[in-house]
Amino acid sequence: MRRRKPSILFLVISLALIWSSFFVLFTYLDVPIGIAIQEKPLFRISLAVKSMPNSLKGQAESFSEETSLLVFNSAGQLRRTSSEQDLDCDGLEGARGKHRGKRNREDSEKTGRNSRPLETIRDEVRQKLSEIRFVNQYNRLITHRRQFIIWNATLKSIIQRHFLEYFDDQTGSTLVYAFPSKLMALLPMDEPLLDYETCAVVGNSGVTLLRLDGKDIDGHDAVFRINLAPVRGFEDHVGSKTTFQVINSPNIREMLTGTLRWRASDNETRLVMFETAARFARHHLAAPLLEEHGSRALLLSPSFSNHCEQLWRTLKESLEAETGVAFHRKPMSGFFAVLMALQVCDRVDLYGFDAYTSSRTKNLYHYFDHVEGFTGVHSFDLAMHIFRKIQEIGLLTIKS
């Protein structure tokens, strides 16, 4: 009896089923299945080839060893592979989120018993403070499309990437932040020019009600406010001028769903989203924010957000070693507002910041309501310690 040859349709269906099975398996195991070539040599590719499916090995081996290799897994995460270790590079959330609970426990256990000498840690703090003005021609403050345009030496042409990558000098790894196409199309082509002589950063603490700083605040060239704090009815204490509203993800979500309404005080007011290192914010909040508010909305560069996180961690470690007190890991929104102001202002004055954790019996959490403050996530005492250290080197002045 003559055996029938399998039909083309049968082969196509079989291949599709096999590929689907691999896709599900690789997603579960987080195995790299795709590649992208970059201009600059960063790592060797030998281990990358070993970790790839057979169908891609030949293609990868044909590349020069001097070529940089990025590896995508089936979940769309970007991974870079080196000859020494496989590094998860999908931003701060991907790189650090998987073991966040474990690391928080480890941090609390390490408090007061840091293995390095205290003077070594203090030297690191001094070094970090000297680098606090981070923005330059290589490190940008605001995310814009020109950051993604590069010369690709392999293709010998100019290309537009859909990711940004930065080297994290603390972990020794490369952090890669993917941007969805929809968001890319909404970004400004160039970085806006932000340059001011005097700036006021106004916190939301109830301590502002103890002083009448409104006119002084409005006298600055630029005024930073945080998380859409209201000014109507409090002008004598906090002023009325707003140049930048620095907002976190929960407030952005409420704005986009209509739960929280915002109206600019004037045509100059800008919304600033700072949590751009978080994948969820980039993929689900940033594009709707830019669609709704256009050029009024600015996204801080992931490299700057990462810089703020690094500074916070270094100073946190130093102060914990000095005081024996454990502080929470997460910087508050006002910390990003202050560091942003330090990049674009010659003189920075702080109003309405308070060590709420230790002064909660004296002052309200917010000047505009009577809610009970949350101290389980942010360390307000640590923030004030850091601001005082920055004040000591003459970069800002704490007014209240």
From TrEMBL:
Protein name: Alpha-N-acetyl-neuraminate alpha-2,8-sialyltransferase (Sialyltransferase 8D)
Organism the protein comes from: Tetraselmis sp. GSL018
Region (Disordered): 82-118
Family statement: Belongs to the glycosyltransferase 29 family.
Record keywords, A-Z: Glycoprotein, Glycosyltransferase, Golgi apparatus, Membrane, Signal-anchor, Transferase, Transmembrane, Transmembrane helix
Entry's Gene Ontology molecular function annotations: sialyltransferase activity
Gene3D superfamilies according to UniProt: Glycosyl transferase family 29
GO cellular component: Golgi membrane
A Pfam match: Glyco_transf_29
Keyword Transferase: yes
Bilayer-spanning residue ranges: 7-29
Transmembrane helix recorded as keyword: yes
Localization (cell): Golgi apparatus membrane
Membrane association type: Single-pass type II membrane protein
